[in-house]
């Protein structure tokens, strides 16, 4: 059964959410995991793909857009087909992806902004009602 972690950031900035997604993907990749970053649409996936090149000067994350290469250890994508089931799904969309249960772990990253927080609460209830193991983590961010 998929383990679901909610990372509750003490920031109201959407950019902080994306930075944390990159950080989480980097950490998971370093531990040998495959990561799928699920975005709401193609422009968001492209933005995240660009951010992964520069989010931390000393960090490199081998990644690609889903349309280009699904064999990379970190993939940015959107839509309803993440390719082969992987280890970690980082959800950056406003709804629970239909395919989330194909992953061992699901990370939901939440910032203190109603446009993000309200749908995240709905997803939390959705997962809880279906009996998925849930963990919440309070994350202090800089700035």
Structural key phrases:
PolIII_chi_sf, 143 residues, seven-stranded parallel β-sheet, DNA polymerase III subunit chi, 24% strand, Rossmann fold, alpha/beta, DNA_pol3_chi, 7 strands
CATH homologous superfamily identity? DNA polymerase III subunit chi
Report the mean per-residue pLDDT as an integer. 92
CATH class: Alpha Beta
User: What is the number of beta strands?
Assistant: 7
Pfam families: DNA_pol3_chi (PF04364)
Protein name: DNA polymerase III subunit chi
Describe the structure.
The protein has helices spanning 14-30, 42-54, 114-129, and strands at 3-9, 35-38, 63-65, 74-77, 88-91, 105-110, 134-139. It has a single domain, classed as DNA polymerase III subunit chi (Rossmann fold, 3-Layer(aba) Sandwich), CATH 3.40.50. The protein has three helices and seven strands, in the order E-H-E-H-E-E-E-E-H-E. It comes from Halopseudomonas sabulinigri. InterPro entries: DNA_pol3_chi, PolIII_chi_sf.
């Amino acid at each position: 059964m998929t383990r679901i972690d909610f990372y509750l950031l003490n920031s109201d900035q959407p950019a902080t959410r994306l930075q944390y997604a990159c950080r989480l993907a980097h950490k998971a990749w370093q531990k040998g995991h495959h990561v799928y970053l699920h975005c709401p649409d193609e422009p968001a996936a492209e933005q995240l793909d660009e951010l992964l090149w520069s989010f931390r000067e000393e960090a490199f994350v081998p990644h690609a857009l889903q349309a280009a290469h699904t064999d990379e250890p970190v993939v940015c994508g959107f839509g309803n087909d993440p390719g082969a089931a992987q280890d970690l799904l980082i959800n950056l969309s406003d709804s629970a992806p239909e395919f989330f249960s194909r992953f061992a772990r699901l990370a939901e990253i939440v910032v203190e902004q109603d446009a993000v927080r309200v749908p995240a609460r709905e997803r939390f209830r959705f997962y809880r009602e279906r009996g998925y193991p849930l963990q919440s983590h309070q994350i202090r961010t800089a700035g």
